[in-house]
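Worked example 2:
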Amino acid sequence: MTNVVPLLELSNIGKQFGGLHALNDVSLHIGRGEIYGLIGPNGAGKTTLFNVITGLYQPNSGEFHFNGRSYQKGAPHVLAEAGIARTFQNIRLFANLTALENVMIGRHVRTRAGVFGALLRNKAARLEEKFCQERAHELLRYVGIGKPGHTLAKNLSYGEQRRLEIARALATEPLLLALDEPAAGMNATETESLKVLLQDIRATGITVLLIEHDVKLIMGLCDRVAVLDYGRKIAEGVPEEVRSNPAVIAAYLGADDE
């Protein structure tokens, strides 16, 4: 994808944990409407970078711009309100709440009734709650969860729980949907269905950032791919370029000593 308009721009991002340099001068930009993949061997720094982007970690150095604004010290709730939504590598649903309630929780980042409105149940709060319910039902259907919304999250299949996390993230009305290994544990049929869903999401104008160990999925889905190794970006480009990059091959397969 050429001439993309940047939505997320990271410049020379560094992150340290004591003496460990988890990220070293990582720079990348993600264009509006892209599906952007982030791959690398275990311990490469993918999750650390992901956590910087979503506000769980604060970078020690570098610049962070999203949608034209600086978010150098953006907390998770600040970045969520700005338009960054995420899922987690390990499913983090409210297991004993219904599927509908899980999605509605995501939607509340956009509500305006406040504590007093919720307690008093005034007209504005009731209308807002009704809209949240309707939108949650729409999103459950959109991601392909056919079971009734009152089904407890823990009673959904593994694949449905993954989709429920995506529905909850979409409820925040994100500009950037950041997914941490959404295909982990899925079979081939579920992975192909996920691929179609992510293409549909991109078609609505939402930008997608994808960390994934399934390199086949990344290469068949993403517009551009970045590769991390030992906390540094070693490659970036369209899938065909990245797949044939000698540094990427060495990182995954090991360099030939000769």
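The beta strands are 6-17, 20-31, 35-39, 61-66, 69-70, 84-86, 176-180, 207-211, 224-229, 232-237. DSSP finds ten helices and ten strands in the chain.
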